[in-house]
């Protein structure tokens, strides 16, 4: 089964973390495939725990989507290192580390449409 793990930084504000979890749930409803959220730090589940949850739920292909706007250290080093460790522990899973959100095609167009659609 194909799963998607949405990775966010994590916050001390519970409401921020809950918003990421709600986004993952909305994505799951739209996609019709399992989508979970996990956090790099400051919140649970951790990335490692999120990966394990997906695998225990039957993931045979696991796509990792970093919910980050810029390609900072977390995107360039921390997340790939954690995913690499998981890949070695779970060779039966097909892995795909997707580009971070900020690299999404037409992000600029989306932001412009969002700006234009926002009432004054």
Outline the structure in words.
- With 120 residues, the protein is of the alpha/beta class.
- It has one domain (2-117): Rossmann fold.
- 47% of the residues lie in helices and 18% in strands.
- It is built from four helices and four strands.
- It has a four-stranded parallel beta sheet, sandwiched between helices.
- α3 links the parallel β3 and β4 (94-97).
- The chain starts with a strand and ends with a helix.
Main attributes?
alpha/beta; 4-stranded parallel sheet; 120 residues; Rossmann fold; single chain
Summarize the entry for a quick read.
It contains four helices and four strands. By secondary structure, it is α/β, with parallel strands linked by helices. The model has no long low-confidence stretch (mean pLDDT 97).
H and E string: EHEHEHEH
User: Mind summarizing the main beta sheet?
Assistant: 4 strands, parallel
Give the strand line-up of the largest sheet.
Answer: 2-1-3-4
Radius of gyration: 15 Å
